[in-house]
Amino acid sequence: MLELIQGVEILGSLGIAKTKELMQYARKLRVKKDQIVVKQGTKGRKVYVVAMGFLTASINGRPTRTLTVSDMFGDVEALFGKIYSATYRTSTEVELLEFPALSLKKTLGETGTLQDIENLAKMQAEDSWEALNSNSTIESWSALKLRLLQSILYRKAYKKGDILWKAGDRSSIAVLVAKGKFRFEGNQNYPFAKGAFIGEVDQILAEKEISTTLRCTKSGYCFVMKRPGLQKFFDSNPGTLLQFVNRNFVE
């Protein structure tokens, strides 16, 4: 059970002591195939982690994603008193860990993890999914990896003419474009639009000078990622960093 909880990306940064504390609240469930575990529209009271098998999430009857080992669901709704936004039905026989929301919130409230989940809830209420799915590289990532990325985002508006960063600066941010147009100065490349991930990630993480100047050419907004969040994300997904090394944008 310890390894299972540590394998949940958004819980992976908890220490051994906090993880063992979570284990005290967990209840093991075995659920047969084709059973509803969580129903859309009902009040969130429990959080679940998949220990074995597969489930399908659906919204208004339309399948949206498949969940398997180490996937967590129901957390955003249960921890913040919301109704479940999706129905989760077993596709095979499954084993689950079930956590009471109040007990889980107490433990996570003593760490930064609850804040991450709260920010995740805000970003899921925004149109961050649409921006993420407009990026051909990012859209292929696992649901867990996307959730972890969403947890470090915050929304910021930019006006035409705004400079996001300058060449020679030690930039501390990267951005995911949601609306508007952005362009590197002195470069005849086409303007970046929805879904573009822009930022010299390797330079940002190393706190070194960057080589580009990015300007907003049509007012809009981006989802911004600061250096500490990027460091946390790539520490949890070291292989993913290779997709960004020596690049100043990914689409």
In this structure, how is the largest beta sheet organized?
6 strands, antiparallel
Mean pLDDT: 88
**End-to-end distance:** 37 Å
Number of helices: 9
Instruction: Report the order of strands and helices.
Output: HHEEEEEEHEEHHHHEEEEHEHE
Which segments are poorly predicted (pLDDT under 50) over 5 or more consecutive residues?
none
Structural class: alpha+beta
Q: Approximately how much beta-strand content do the residues carry?
A: 25-35%
Gross morphology is elongated
Q: How would you describe this protein?
A:
The longest helix has 13 residues, at 113-125. Helix 2 (16-25) packs antiparallel against helix 4. The chain is α+β, with helices and mostly antiparallel strands and 251 residues long. It has helices spanning 2-6, 16-25, 75-79, 101-108, 113-125, 128-133, 143-150, 201-206, 227-236, and strands at residues 27-31, 36-38, 46-52, 55-59, 62-67, 72-73, 87-90, 94-100, 154-158, 163-165, 173-184, 197-198, 214-226, 249-250. It starts with a helix and ends with a strand. The protein has 9 helices and 14 strands. Strands 9, 10, 11, 12, 13 and 14 form a 6-stranded antiparallel β-sheet that branches. It has a 4-stranded antiparallel β-sheet with strand order 1-8-3-6.
